[in-house]
Amino acid sequence: MSAAPKAPVKPAGRDEPGKARLAAIVAGTAIGMAIGYAPAFNATAGVFAPAILREFHWTREQAAISYAASMGGLAAVSPFIGMLMDRFGPRRVILASAVVFSLAVACMSLQSGDIAAWIALSVVIGVAGAATSVLGYLAILPQWFDRRLGLATGCAMIGLGIGVAAAPTATQHLIAAFHWRATYQIIACVSLVGSLLACSLIRERKAATRSNQRNDHIPDGGADPAFSAVKLCTIFAVAFLASSATLSLNPHLPAMLTDRGLSAGAAAHCASLIGVGVLVGRLLSGILIDRLHAPFVGAGFFLAGAAGYLLLMNAASLHSALLACACIGLAIGAEGDLLSYLIRAYLGLRRFGLNYGIAFAGYAFGAVIGPLLAGRYFDLNGNYELPLRLAPLVLLVACVLLVSLGKYRALQSSPLDAQLASAET
């Protein structure tokens, strides 16, 4: 009698998930980003500004300092957060950050008009919120996906797009119904509960973490490409330039549109449509970068953002302003997908957290400088004409740098990708 065939032996350390596990991981990252730093604080900064300006009698530049200070804190701490994620895993870092972030947002309601205290708390929010942003959540997906990383990232980014789209309008209604102080407390509670739910769904791939620490190989994707400081610096520069252009008027947008005669509600709807553009840009760019050369995809979306600024500069009606905001949102959305993908493709999983943290710091520093310069220009000149003219030019430079990155190792198919493909049918 012949011996029964032996069952295939799985490689040691492998952690092959089912469809439900993969779906839960993507859903968890989507939920976490929907109530994390960007929707809960960044997307609402411009909506809070008019009420804060009236109560504290601040200039617009002073009101924008909160947004800029938080992004400055996030930028400064991003490489360190990346190192912590490489050491302890993203999930633990996200959970600790979410608790501190929610408490800090709630403390915004206690402010008395002391600008130094306002800036200090904003920095704390940025530092604590770093891991609740795409920096933390998108560090998980490359552990599970390779050839379909763009699609997985795009699906997860839908959560961020929904959060950014819904937050301004919801915040406007809450401020009108309650008060801006109570609204900060409500946002803090929602963020904490959502973060706990997200952390209950996401999982880390232990095999990927160990190989990352050993610096020997990429699971399911072949050998890591050699590290290139030039590539990393170029990605940093692209992130800095693109975010400084696309986010420069983000906290100023509601006030700028009300200056043009729109109501506060209509201005909030325009800010929300940026979120809709972000949502479409996240998903569409995620699908495209799995099929086309990622720098070309990114350049196309950046050109759409440049067109949005040209349209906003000459917007004479609510409909043209809405279309302009949607185009700008497309560029913001694509940039979020691109960063993690470019790091994964050009530099691999080896020290992914640190490299991604450095690139994300470029994005955050751009988000600091852009709004501050735009606010300063308005206080000196009473309009946003020059920032609106410079933003398309900056996006064009980012396009050139992005395309200059050249070819990268094609991300290969894996058992995880096969399961995702079967789940789509």
Automatic annotation (TrEMBL):
One of its GO terms (molecular function) is transmembrane transporter activity. The chain crosses the membrane at residues 20-43, 63-81, 93-111, 117-140, 149-170, 182-202, 223-242, 262-284, 296-315, 321-342, 354-374, 386-405. Residues 20-409 form the Major facilitator superfamily (MFS) profile domain. Keywords: Membrane, Transmembrane, Transmembrane helix. InterPro entries: MFS (IPR011701), MFS_dom (IPR020846), MFS_trans_sf (IPR036259), Proton-linked_MCT (IPR050327). It holds the Pfam family MFS_1. This is Major facilitator superfamily (MFS) profile domain-containing protein. The lineage of its organism: Bacteria, Pseudomonadati, Pseudomonadota, Betaproteobacteria, Burkholderiales.
